[in-house]
């Protein structure tokens, strides 16, 4: 078996290995961890104090990361290429212009490592931090392959939620919009979002009359289209599965995804990309991908920042209180933090709790904030049980920019980009370390920014050990806030 794993932080020469103690007065640690809050003081460290944070900076590409040997050079365009330089002979000129206009000039780490492999036709598993720019990496591959003027489906992006689908579609459309002063126009309808919900029927007939070049679809919608023979994968050149671990873990989606991948495996001339910030047991996954022929044998695993799966500008805190004090504690935190925008994650209501007629946590939090919070942030809700129009309306508000507090279930935890987000609150604890990672990853999403963001878990004392497990697994340190 010929699977290549490029775990950059393991393979690259480690440039800096720094151990920082938040009690030290070094400027780097103090700039990272704000020390004073109106109502809270950091009094206690929850983990051993001798190793507080391990930051590993891996900025030099290794020869092994490239398909051809690296020739040592002092030329900056080789060691530090721009996105234009990486994409030059692959992506249409107009799109490069547009990309720069939008603000994508320098590649993020995962883009720098992945794009040469993607352009060379290799199947790839993109495994990199939340907010590290995986979406742009696979969209650039798609635009290097498809002819948007042609009426046949050449690329499919599969996503687990409608919200993520809307976002990917938006970025895909922004990239092919006419650049200022540029020439030519894209075929309208070259990109289609095939997401569950109201417009699906209309889209199906449109799909038949004039197939789009690129389809962004939820797994279930795509499976339905295939089963009803409204669509075949025969013309496909590239398939991307975003948040792949989530889909494989979802009892609702996994069998549909397997059907799609099995059907796709018989296509010729195909390229496959899987993406996520978390791919537990990735070696097993890669083996299965090859065995099931979802990918070619030389699939490449691009693992960026394997040691530090969450952005290093993110700092983690927790506060312990009684269940009855949780809402009040949340309010105090919001008042002292004064977030630009924040998400309050709450657990999904169990079937049992629904049957007994209890209110879901989301309603409790929303109702409490609407009566008790008197700040300027707009209070919004996003949860599974909302109808599609209300979900879309909340997302639209969020996408207008900062200035909101979004009360959400984990439906908002995967892939959705909230660039203005500065604070995450876990009102209910995440169920797994992976859930923690994706919730926390909704902040710090401006790749080249140095703004600090925080994630705060409000827990009862019995939940402390669960958080400790997440700290060990994800290798971060959580500080206790004492009210
Ligand atoms: N090269 C770049 N330069 C500047 N900004 C970028 C670049 N690439 C991506 N971004 C921005 O970074 C943010 C995060 O990107 P993106 O949503 O693709 O991350 P991701 O890796 O898919 O995250 P997740 O794992 O959470 O899905 C977006 O706002 C995007 O516009």
TrEMBL record:
GO terms for molecular function: ATP binding; hydrolase activity; RNA binding; RNA helicase activity. It catalyses: ATP + H2O = ADP + phosphate + H(+). PROSITE patterns: HELICASE_ATP_BIND_1, HELICASE_CTER. Keywords: ATP-binding, Helicase, Hydrolase, Nucleotide-binding. It holds the Pfam family Helicase_C. Its EC number is 3.6.4.13. Residues 115-297 form the Helicase ATP-binding domain. It comes from the Eukaryota. Residues 326-483 form the Helicase C-terminal domain. It is an enzyme of class 3 (hydrolase). This is RNA helicase. It comes from Pisum sativum (Garden pea).
